[in-house]
Amino acid sequence: MALLRAVPLSPAQWAEGYALVEELSQRADLNHAPRLYYLPSPEPNAISLGRGKQSVIAITQGLLQLLDERELVGVLAHEISHFRANDIGLLNLAALLSQLTVLMAFFGLLLVVVSLPIYLISGQSPPLLLILLLVLAPYAVTLLTLALSRAREFDADLNAALLTGDPAGLASALDKLKQLHGSYWEQIFPGRTRSSPWLQSHPSTRERIARLLS
């Protein structure tokens, strides 16, 4: 959290926030309610880190200014749902496996390249299928990791709605974030369209809102 310049908040500094987190944590059957941190950033965002006694939710100044209490409850419930499902640990493991796959594929291709003179001298064909697998494996694992991340976001949304009993609150928060971020990127890259949904770590906000309100 120090790298993010996050400031720990005590219950005395934000009693309402801690009361909300405590109540939502009890509903989610968490043994330990996350601690709250404040990020002095104008970008509206909430970040979940750690697990168990070390679990933390960091909230930016921009998010506090953008959302009303009902919407903030939805966002907090979303983050707590990630802790409940151990999504942080799961996604960290997926990222580690992805990195290991990339590393193994690199050394595998390097070994094939070093062995090419042997294949040429012996008149044998290089293992084309193996080469193809080594080239495609990192891309396949990356796509699977992104798909897992999107699935966990959908589940966190739905579980947050169950915790609060108010899916419209989170949907409203997502809509505000969509309008703000959409306007921001359109100013920087006018005319640019969003990249393929397969390459996104989060599902589209429109689809998330539609699922919440369905």
From TrEMBL:
<keyword id="KW-0482">Metalloprotease</keyword>
<dbReference type="GO" id="GO:0005886">
    <property type="term" value="C:plasma membrane"/>
</dbReference>
<dbReference type="InterPro" id="IPR050083">
    <property type="entry name" value="HtpX_protease"/>
</dbReference>
<dbReference type="GO" id="GO:0006508">
    <property type="term" value="P:proteolysis"/>
</dbReference>
<dbReference type="Pfam" id="PF01435">
    <property type="entry name" value="Peptidase_M48"/>
</dbReference>
<dbReference type="InterPro" id="IPR001915">
    <property type="entry name" value="Peptidase_M48"/>
</dbReference>
<comment type="similarity">
    <text>Belongs to the peptidase M48 family.</text>
</comment>
<keyword id="KW-1133">Transmembrane helix</keyword>
<keyword id="KW-0645">Protease</keyword>
<keyword id="KW-0472">Membrane</keyword>
<feature type="transmembrane region" description="Helical">
    <location>
        <begin position="100"/>
        <end position="122"/>
    </location>
</feature>
<dbReference type="GO" id="GO:0046872">
    <property type="term" value="F:metal ion binding"/>
</dbReference>
<keyword id="KW-0862">Zinc</keyword>
<keyword id="KW-0378">Hydrolase</keyword>
<feature type="transmembrane region" description="Helical">
    <location>
        <begin position="128"/>
        <end position="148"/>
    </location>
</feature>
<feature type="domain" description="Peptidase M48">
    <location>
        <begin position="19"/>
        <end position="213"/>
    </location>
</feature>
<dbReference type="GO" id="GO:0004222">
    <property type="term" value="F:metalloendopeptidase activity"/>
</dbReference>
<keyword id="KW-0479">Metal-binding</keyword>
<keyword id="KW-0812">Transmembrane</keyword>
<protein>
    <recommendedName>
        <fullName>Peptidase M48 domain-containing protein</fullName>
    </recommendedName>
</protein>
<keyword id="KW-1003">Cell membrane</keyword>
